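Two proteins were folded this term; both appear here.
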Amino acid sequence: MLVAIDASSPIPVYEQLRSQLQRLIASGQLPRGTRLPTIRQLAADLGLASATVSRVYELLANDGWVVGAGRHGTVVQDVPSTGVLDAELRQAAQHLALLAHQSGMNRAAVTDLLEAALGDAS
């Protein structure tokens, strides 16, 4: 699975994992019906506590992104709403704008930075 945790990030690890899984589901990289790794397996792969992964799966289930299928594990559902991802992107853009303003970076430099990041993400 294409997720990574940045231990030096100020964003809590459960939130990093939750948002990455939401993006993978919304983008279709984890289509409906995909079985997610077991809690124990994903926790071991990422070096996290099982309780952290369990919390993430529970949050995703509460928001309709996944469903617990008993002994069949946790399964991806349809994307509940693009509004969640839109809000996350808007918040990230506002954070970028604030950091750029605080550092005195001009619009052209911010645009170049964003274009480079978009190129790296492709």
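Next, the second protein.
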Amino acid sequence: MKQVIAIIRDERVEATKEALEAAGIRGVTFLYVTGRGQQKGKVNSQEMGESLTRHLRMQLGAVSPDNEPDAGTRVALLPFQPDTEFAFGFLPKRMLIMVLNDEDVNLIVRTIVNVNQTGRHGDGRIFICPMIGAIRVRTGEQGDKALS
């Protein structure tokens, strides 16, 4: 058994879910996370696209629950120039956590890479860790039986 942890762009979640379902993966946990990599949280508006605008709105408190600017907010939410660079420190990402049988790991890693690889900074990371055990709480099944 292996644990696969993938950190991907927020806007690639739906495509990743669909690809994992098509590959036969049923159990996956998605978490909202923030972080930074080699770029130290610096990103230009062209690399981040719409998620940059959404992230800036959230940082500035300029988004209401229906994703529209609050009436009292005086923050300009105009599109950014493509070469504008921002330093957030931490950027919004999604973390996927899966526990897989050893024979499924390569297929799932390739699937995640194929869906998320754009060639730009911030495409993400995948970590593969040994898993020493698993227990299904409902039935008490252990090991590989707990995964099926």
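The chain has two domains: 1-41+90-148, 43-88. The chain has four helices and six strands. These notes refer to the second protein only.
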